[in-house]
């Protein structure tokens, strides 16, 4: 992947208290933020990531662009859940932070979590998307929690901002999978994860090499959680494959049995026909 400066915009509106994502929308978002940070830095050590919160009274930059996750954590601790969603102003402040990046070679990207209703109209969002596209800023949107309300607006926004598939919309309804797990397998991060794999078909999350997405030494709890999740997903896929093979085999047996029955019926018909011919003689 290319060299990037990324601003992560988190939603700290009142809606983030909801517990439809483990353990709350806000906590699920923070775990995903940590995962995205590690992914970006590990995919290219010269990448930088910043953080802002755009709920409450208005956007607040929590950390300028950095490679130090400690600064991101420090910014998170200063955040309070309050107020409502300020989507447009959040993106504009994030764009301003990217404009002041030290390394101008870095491509500009905003990753924004949207977990509460967007108050802007589609027309306002269209103007914003065109402005961001003109400034060569890619925007990845993580749409969760209020997807039934926001999806149509965000799809329109994404269709305008997207330039040669550089921006993504990931919609994640509540479910058994954790927020960061869905993000990890989405197009938003798959390119980053695949970029340093040397053509391998499986992501090396915990191999201890330079291609790890999560460094177990930096965050053993998240690394363990992700490892267990991947193992469970692998086991589930293996069970489904085994059941599918079993069902296919059972269906084949039924087909063969049906064919044998048809053959027996045809043979009986032939035998009866022969008997009738002999009686006629």
UniProtKB/TrEMBL annotation:
The keyword Heme does not apply. The keyword Disulfide bond does not apply. SUPFAM superfamilies: vWA-like. One of its GO terms (molecular function) is K48-linked polyubiquitin modification-dependent protein binding. It comes from the Eukaryota. GO terms for cellular component: cytosol; nucleus; proteasome regulatory particle, base subcomplex. Residues 5-186 form the VWFA domain. Residues 232-281 are annotated as: Disordered. Keywords: Proteasome. This is VWFA domain-containing protein. It comes from Candida verbasci.
């Amino acid at each position: 992947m290319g060299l990037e400066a990324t601003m992560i915009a988190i939603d700290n509106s009142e809606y983030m208290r909801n517990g439809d994502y483990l353990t709350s929308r806000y906590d699920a978002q923070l775990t995903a933020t940590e995962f995205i940070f590690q992914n970006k830095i590990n995919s290219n050590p010269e990448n930088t990531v910043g953080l802002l919160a755009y709920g409450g009274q208005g956007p607040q930059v929590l950390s300028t662009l950095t490679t130090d996750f400690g600064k991101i954590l420090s910014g998170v601790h200063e955040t309070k859940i309050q107020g409502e969603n300020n989507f447009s102003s959040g993106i504009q402040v994030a764009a301003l932070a990217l404009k002041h990046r030290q390394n101008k070679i870095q491509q500009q990207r905003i990753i924004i979590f949207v977990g509460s209703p967007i108050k802007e109209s589609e027309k306002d969002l269209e103007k914003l998307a065109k402005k961001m596209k003109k400034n060569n800023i890619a925007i990845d949107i993580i749409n969760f929690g209020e997807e039934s309300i926001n999806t149509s607006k965000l799809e329109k926004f994404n269709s305008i901002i997207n330039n040669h598939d550089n921006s993504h919309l990931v919609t994640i309804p509540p479910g058994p999978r954790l927020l960061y797990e869905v993000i990890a397998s989405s197009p938003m991060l798959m390119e980053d994860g695949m970029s340093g794999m040397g053509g391998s078909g499986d992501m090396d999350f915990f191999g201890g090499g330079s291609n790890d997405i999560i460094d177990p030494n930096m965050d053993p709890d998240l690394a363990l959680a992700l490892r267990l999740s991947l193992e469970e997903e692998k086991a589930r896929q293996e069970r489904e494959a085994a059941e599918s093979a079993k069902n296919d085999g059972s269906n084949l047996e039924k087909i063969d049995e049906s064919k044998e029955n048809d053959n027996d019926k045809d043979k009986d018909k032939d035998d009866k026909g022969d008997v009738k011919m002999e009686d006629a003689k």
